[in-house]
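Suppose you are handed a protein chain with no further information: no name, no annotation, nothing but its sequence. What can you learn? This example shows the usual starting point.
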Amino acid sequence: MRKEDKRNRSFQRSERFYEKESGWYFLIRQGASFGPYESKQHAQKHLNSFISLLVS
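A reasonable first move is to predict its three-dimensional structure. Written in structure tokens, the prediction is:
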């Protein structure tokens, strides 16, 4: 840890998945959302595919 880093940093966590009337969505860090998907499991599957594209 560097001197200038705060020792008691507080991080705010938000849910990556959310549901609306039209279906399930997932959020990415840049604030964009993707969906709708028919279930939370489908949204998770598509998020995993999205992440795989980014790291390959």
